[in-house]
Please model this.
Amino acid sequence: MIRRTDDPEKLKYQAQGRPLSPPETALTQAMVKHFAAGTHDFAALAAALQADGVVRPSGAVGAWTEAVLEAELRAINQELDRAEAESGFGA
Model:
């Protein structure tokens, strides 16, 4: 099913087939905070997420590392792609 919208508030989520989970939202907010502060290196970002106590969206436990950050982002992207393919544009 394809759903379309002209609502500007909804357009920013046009490629999401589902809303972000609370842990995904927390990760996103933490990443935006650290990017805005000038952190752009994934190793430094992982250290900052660890220092902030950000929970992994996958539910896995353990320290944030560059590899873990990449794996978490890859998994989120794959899940959002799957949801978008199932739900269509503008879900």
About this structure: The radius of gyration is 15 Å. Residues 21-87 form one domain.
